[in-house]
Protein backbone atom coordinates (compact mmCIF):
# COMPACT_ATOMS: atom_id res chain seq x y z
CA UNK A 1 0.00 0.00 0.00
CA UNK A 2 2.73 2.38 1.04
CA UNK A 3 6.39 2.05 0.13
CA UNK A 4 8.56 4.96 1.16
CA UNK A 5 12.34 5.14 1.36
CA UNK A 6 13.29 8.76 1.53
CA UNK A 7 14.72 11.54 3.64
CA UNK A 8 14.15 15.24 4.01
CA UNK A 9 16.69 17.67 5.46
CA UNK A 10 15.10 20.47 7.49
CA UNK A 11 16.88 23.22 9.42
CA UNK A 12 18.51 21.41 12.35
CA UNK A 13 17.43 17.84 11.53
CA UNK A 14 16.96 15.18 8.87
CA UNK A 15 13.77 13.13 8.79
CA UNK A 16 14.25 9.62 7.34
CA UNK A 17 11.43 7.27 6.40
CA UNK A 18 11.75 3.59 5.50
CA UNK A 19 8.31 2.06 5.42
CA UNK A 20 6.72 -0.78 3.55
CA UNK A 21 3.19 -1.97 4.31
CA UNK A 22 1.09 -4.80 2.81
CA UNK A 23 -0.78 -4.17 -0.44
CA UNK A 24 -4.15 -5.32 0.93
CA UNK A 25 -4.41 -2.32 3.26
CA UNK A 26 -7.03 0.18 2.07
CA UNK A 27 -6.79 2.59 5.00
CA UNK A 28 -3.42 2.88 6.69
CA UNK A 29 -3.41 4.44 10.16
CA UNK A 30 -0.40 6.40 11.34
CA UNK A 31 0.31 7.40 14.90
CA UNK A 32 3.34 8.60 16.82
CA UNK A 33 4.57 11.24 19.23
CA UNK A 34 4.20 14.91 18.47
CA UNK A 35 7.01 16.06 16.17
CA UNK A 36 7.97 12.55 15.00
CA UNK A 37 7.17 13.44 11.38
CA UNK A 38 3.59 12.31 10.61
CA UNK A 39 2.50 15.50 8.85
CA UNK A 40 5.77 15.69 6.94
CA UNK A 41 5.27 12.12 5.70
CA UNK A 42 1.78 13.03 4.39
CA UNK A 43 3.22 16.12 2.71
CA UNK A 44 5.90 13.97 1.04
CA UNK A 45 3.24 11.54 -0.20
CA UNK A 46 1.16 14.45 -1.50
CA UNK A 47 4.14 15.90 -3.39
CA UNK A 48 4.30 19.03 -1.25
CA UNK A 49 7.89 18.54 -0.05
CA UNK A 50 10.02 19.19 -3.11
CA UNK A 51 13.27 18.83 -1.15
CA UNK A 52 12.51 15.21 -0.16
CA UNK A 53 14.91 12.70 -1.74
CA UNK A 54 14.21 9.06 -2.43
CA UNK A 55 11.37 6.76 -3.38
CA UNK A 56 7.62 7.17 -2.77
CA UNK A 57 4.96 4.70 -3.87
CA UNK A 58 1.36 4.79 -2.63
CA UNK A 59 -1.50 2.48 -3.68
CA UNK A 60 0.65 1.09 -6.51
CA UNK A 61 1.35 4.56 -7.91
CA UNK A 62 5.02 5.43 -8.15
CA UNK A 63 5.06 9.14 -7.40
CA UNK A 64 8.71 9.87 -6.79
CA UNK A 65 12.02 8.24 -7.59
CA UNK A 66 14.76 10.82 -7.23
CA UNK A 67 17.45 8.54 -8.68
CA UNK A 68 15.50 8.47 -11.92
CA UNK A 69 14.54 12.15 -11.64
CA UNK A 70 10.91 11.17 -11.37
CA UNK A 71 8.55 13.47 -9.46
CA UNK A 72 4.81 13.54 -10.17
CA UNK A 73 3.50 17.01 -9.40
CA UNK A 74 1.07 17.36 -6.48
CA UNK A 75 -1.75 18.50 -8.77
CA UNK A 76 -1.45 15.28 -10.80
CA UNK A 77 -1.72 12.97 -7.81
CA UNK A 78 -5.52 13.38 -7.40
CA UNK A 79 -5.32 13.49 -3.63
CA UNK A 80 -7.92 14.90 -1.26
CA UNK A 81 -5.90 16.19 1.70
CA UNK A 82 -7.44 17.25 5.01
CA UNK A 83 -4.87 19.19 7.02
CA UNK A 84 -4.80 19.51 10.81
CA UNK A 85 -5.77 23.17 10.47
CA UNK A 86 -8.56 23.53 7.92
CA UNK A 87 -6.70 25.91 5.53
CA UNK A 88 -9.82 27.37 3.94
CA UNK A 89 -9.59 30.30 1.54
CA UNK A 90 -10.47 33.30 3.70
CA UNK A 91 -11.80 35.41 0.81
CA UNK A 92 -14.26 32.73 -0.35
CA UNK A 93 -17.58 31.60 1.11
CA UNK A 94 -17.97 28.07 2.42
CA UNK A 95 -19.83 27.09 -0.76
CA UNK A 96 -17.03 28.49 -2.91
CA UNK A 97 -14.41 26.76 -0.79
CA UNK A 98 -16.15 23.43 -1.19
CA UNK A 99 -16.69 23.87 -4.92
CA UNK A 100 -13.27 25.37 -5.46
CA UNK A 101 -12.36 22.83 -8.12
CA UNK A 102 -15.71 23.34 -9.81
CA UNK A 103 -16.54 19.65 -9.97
CA UNK A 104 -20.02 19.07 -11.34
CA UNK A 105 -20.15 15.28 -11.63
CA UNK A 106 -19.06 13.76 -8.35
CA UNK A 107 -17.79 10.23 -7.93
CA UNK A 108 -20.26 7.67 -6.53
CA UNK A 109 -20.40 8.03 -2.76
CA UNK A 110 -19.03 11.58 -2.93
CA UNK A 111 -22.13 13.34 -4.27
CA UNK A 112 -22.24 17.01 -3.26
CA UNK A 113 -25.64 16.70 -1.53
CA UNK A 114 -24.58 13.64 0.42
CA UNK A 115 -21.29 15.19 1.52
CA UNK A 116 -22.98 18.44 2.57
CA UNK A 117 -25.65 16.60 4.58
CA UNK A 118 -23.27 14.16 6.23
CA UNK A 119 -20.79 16.86 7.19
CA UNK A 120 -23.75 19.05 8.30
CA UNK A 121 -22.45 22.16 6.57
CA UNK A 122 -25.57 23.10 4.54
CA UNK A 123 -26.47 25.96 6.88
CA UNK A 124 -22.93 27.37 6.63
CA UNK A 125 -22.66 27.65 2.85
CA UNK A 126 -22.95 31.45 2.63
CA UNK A 127 -20.57 32.22 5.48
CA UNK A 128 -16.92 33.21 5.27
CA UNK A 129 -14.37 31.05 7.18
CA UNK A 130 -13.77 33.87 9.68
CA UNK A 131 -17.35 33.35 10.88
CA UNK A 132 -16.96 29.63 11.55
CA UNK A 133 -15.95 27.80 14.71
CA UNK A 134 -12.88 25.56 14.63
CA UNK A 135 -14.98 22.40 14.33
CA UNK A 136 -17.13 23.92 11.57
CA UNK A 137 -14.02 24.90 9.62
CA UNK A 138 -12.72 21.37 9.92
CA UNK A 139 -16.05 19.92 8.67
CA UNK A 140 -15.93 22.26 5.68
CA UNK A 141 -12.33 21.19 4.98
CA UNK A 142 -13.38 17.54 4.98
CA UNK A 143 -16.32 18.35 2.68
CA UNK A 144 -13.95 20.14 0.31
CA UNK A 145 -11.55 17.21 0.18
CA UNK A 146 -14.35 14.71 -0.45
CA UNK A 147 -15.97 16.70 -3.27
CA UNK A 148 -12.69 17.29 -5.11
CA UNK A 149 -13.00 13.96 -6.99
CA UNK A 150 -10.15 12.40 -5.04
CA UNK A 151 -8.70 9.05 -6.04
CA UNK A 152 -6.79 8.96 -2.75
CA UNK A 153 -7.41 10.56 0.63
CA UNK A 154 -4.91 11.81 3.22
CA UNK A 155 -6.25 12.80 6.62
CA UNK A 156 -4.09 14.58 9.20
CA UNK A 157 -5.99 14.44 12.50
CA UNK A 158 -9.10 15.53 10.57
CA UNK A 159 -11.54 15.41 13.47
CA UNK A 160 -9.61 17.79 15.73
CA UNK A 161 -12.03 20.24 17.32
CA UNK A 162 -15.15 18.46 16.04
CA UNK A 163 -17.78 17.58 18.65
CA UNK A 164 -18.52 13.96 19.56
CA UNK A 165 -21.83 13.59 17.67
CA UNK A 166 -20.44 14.88 14.39
CA UNK A 167 -17.27 12.82 14.88
CA UNK A 168 -19.26 9.58 15.08
CA UNK A 169 -21.24 10.40 11.92
CA UNK A 170 -18.18 11.50 9.94
CA UNK A 171 -16.10 8.49 10.94
CA UNK A 172 -18.98 6.17 9.95
CA UNK A 173 -19.16 7.87 6.56
CA UNK A 174 -15.41 7.66 5.95
CA UNK A 175 -15.43 4.00 6.94
CA UNK A 176 -18.33 3.42 4.54
CA UNK A 177 -16.44 5.16 1.69
CA UNK A 178 -13.53 2.86 2.38
CA UNK A 179 -15.62 -0.32 2.38
CA UNK A 180 -17.89 0.53 -0.55
CA UNK A 181 -15.46 2.24 -2.90
CA UNK A 182 -12.08 1.01 -1.66
CA UNK A 183 -10.58 4.52 -1.77
CA UNK A 184 -6.97 4.25 -0.58
CA UNK A 185 -6.58 6.40 2.52
CA UNK A 186 -3.98 7.34 5.07
CA UNK A 187 -5.35 8.48 8.40
CA UNK A 188 -3.13 10.16 10.99
CA UNK A 189 -4.45 10.25 14.53
CA UNK A 190 -3.18 9.84 18.06
CA UNK A 191 -6.55 8.33 19.10
CA UNK A 192 -6.72 4.55 19.03
CA UNK A 193 -10.53 4.46 18.85
CA UNK A 194 -10.51 6.50 15.63
CA UNK A 195 -7.80 4.30 14.14
CA UNK A 196 -9.64 1.12 15.13
CA UNK A 197 -12.77 2.33 13.43
CA UNK A 198 -11.21 3.37 10.13
CA UNK A 199 -7.82 1.73 9.57
CA UNK A 200 -6.87 -1.78 8.45
CA UNK A 201 -3.47 -1.50 10.06
CA UNK A 202 -1.38 1.10 11.81
CA UNK A 203 2.20 2.32 11.67
CA UNK A 204 3.72 3.73 14.80
CA UNK A 205 6.34 6.13 13.48
CA UNK A 206 8.22 5.99 16.78
CA UNK A 207 8.94 2.27 16.35
CA UNK A 208 11.48 2.28 13.58
CA UNK A 209 12.06 -1.50 13.29
CA UNK A 210 8.57 -2.81 13.91
CA UNK A 211 6.39 -0.29 12.20
CA UNK A 212 3.30 -2.22 11.23
CA UNK A 213 0.58 -3.44 13.58
CA UNK A 214 -2.84 -4.80 12.69
CA UNK A 215 -5.49 -3.24 14.87
CA UNK A 216 -8.63 -5.26 15.51
CA UNK A 217 -11.46 -3.63 13.64
CA UNK A 218 -15.07 -4.43 14.53
CA UNK A 219 -16.23 -3.46 11.02
CA UNK A 220 -13.92 -5.70 9.02
CA UNK A 221 -16.78 -8.14 8.43
CA UNK A 222 -18.31 -5.60 6.01
CA UNK A 223 -15.12 -5.44 3.99
N1 LIG B 1 9.04 23.70 7.49
C1 LIG B 1 9.77 23.20 8.49
N2 LIG B 1 10.98 23.69 8.81
C2 LIG B 1 11.71 23.17 9.80
N3 LIG B 1 11.33 22.14 10.56
C3 LIG B 1 10.13 21.60 10.31
C4 LIG B 1 9.28 22.08 9.26
N4 LIG B 1 8.16 21.34 9.24
C5 LIG B 1 8.30 20.44 10.24
N5 LIG B 1 9.47 20.59 10.87
C6 LIG B 1 9.98 19.77 11.98
O1 LIG B 1 9.96 18.44 11.53
C7 LIG B 1 9.60 17.56 12.59
C8 LIG B 1 8.38 16.76 12.19
O2 LIG B 1 7.24 17.64 12.11
P1 LIG B 1 5.78 17.10 11.77
O3 LIG B 1 4.89 18.28 11.72
O4 LIG B 1 5.88 16.23 10.57
O5 LIG B 1 5.48 16.19 13.04
P2 LIG B 1 4.11 15.51 13.52
O6 LIG B 1 4.43 14.10 13.90
O7 LIG B 1 3.06 15.68 12.46
O8 LIG B 1 3.74 16.35 14.79
P3 LIG B 1 2.30 16.69 15.46
O9 LIG B 1 1.71 15.38 15.93
O10 LIG B 1 2.66 17.60 16.59
O11 LIG B 1 1.47 17.36 14.40
C9 LIG B 1 9.38 18.44 13.81
O12 LIG B 1 10.56 18.42 14.58
C10 LIG B 1 9.12 19.80 13.20
O13 LIG B 1 9.50 20.83 14.11
TrEMBL record:
Keywords: ATP-binding, Nucleotide-binding. SUPFAM superfamilies: P-loop containing nucleoside triphosphate hydrolases. PROSITE patterns: ABC_TRANSPORTER_1, ABC_TRANSPORTER_2. The keyword Signal does not apply. Gene3D superfamilies: P-loop containing nucleotide triphosphate hydrolases. Residues 1-223 form the ABC transporter domain. It comes from the Bacteria. InterPro entries: AAA+_ATPase, ABC_transporter-like_ATP-bd, ABC_transporter-like_CS, Molybdenum_import_ModC, P-loop_NTPase. GO terms for molecular function: ATP binding. It holds the Pfam family ABC_tran. This is ATP-binding cassette domain-containing protein. It comes from Pseudoalteromonas haloplanktis.
